[in-house]
């Protein structure tokens, strides 16, 4: 009887939460700690043919995964998606896996320019997945959504948990709570890089953000009872040093729908309350350099001087080539007339 009630309860929850952006297992939010199983049911681990996790993604419907284009730009081996995964080493009782059979990189993404614009890609799985308490799609931010400065957001992944490549890679799925940083403020950190297709999130003092290996992971914010994906992890400087750069999902609604055909994901318009303080933000002017006591230099007129050249031939560096021991023939020129004279006398005397 107890088992029947449990199965019935789970089935009822799944039936009631058939839409996107619902995480029944997300009972608490603790930034910077291990994520509880089911907290982020749309989190996808993308692994190579050897089973190594190299990027993350988000489940957006039963057939498709959203990730960063730079994760797929140089992929030459099969990619497998793991859903419902908590640990990279296992066990993962709620996990299913699917091979990726189609990769669609945004046509305007150009890795040669290395400017991170349009860094977004879609992955189609070989077969549909069934939704459970641990595997569910996330809602995507619709065109016109607003994410004002300070909007509380979350990102999860299995990447390095400290700065640098030497940082320890996490075995368990980690989550971190970061606020949105407006584009005007974020341009202070990335003046030549940031476009309107991007958004930023992170703490001003650093210490918390996505890190290497979390590329492609979803940045999500909660509106009512629904989680909405605002961004895709794209770029950053180190780990927790500056705000992280994300692809602004709402800018790509039309491309996503056209690429996926009839199986469109769930788009939700996210509306931030109040006014955005970033609209009037200007980068602070750096302080003027410290002034030091000026020094006046007196320019003296140039003086004419005579260069004395040596009259004897300077010693040369020993040459180890086949010509190194040769002597100049100039020294023998004075003996040539004497030799000719003696030879002539010998001939004349011999004839007499």
Features:
352 residues, globular, hydrolase, serine-type endopeptidase activity, 13% helix, Thrombin, subunit H
Please characterize this protein's 3D structure:
The protein is α+β, with helices and mostly antiparallel strands and 352 residues long. It has a single domain, classed as Trypsin-like serine proteases (Thrombin, subunit H), CATH 2.40.10. 13% of the residues lie in helices and 23% in strands. The protein is built from 5 helices and 15 strands. Strands 9-10-11-14-13-12 form a 6-stranded antiparallel β-barrel. A 6-stranded antiparallel beta barrel has the order 2-3-4-7-6-5. A hairpin with a 4-residue loop joins strand 3 (53-59) and strand 4 (64-67). The model is unreliable at 6-16 and 291-340 (pLDDT under 50).
CATH class: Mainly Beta
As for the number of domains, it is: 1
Classify the fold: give the CATH topology: Thrombin, subunit H
Radius of gyration: 36 Å
Helix content: 10-25%
User: Which shape, going by the Cα principal axes?
Assistant: globular
Structural class by SSE content: alpha+beta
Strand content: 15-25%
**CATH A-level architecture:** Beta Barrel
The sequence of SSEs as H and E is HEEEEHEEEEEEHEEEEHEH
According to DSSP, the number of beta strands is: 15
Average residue-wise pLDDT: 78
| CATH H-level superfamily title | Trypsin-like serine proteases
Distance between the termini: 150 Å
Pfam families: Trypsin
Protein name: Prostasin
Signal peptide: 1-22
Domain Peptidase S1: 29-261
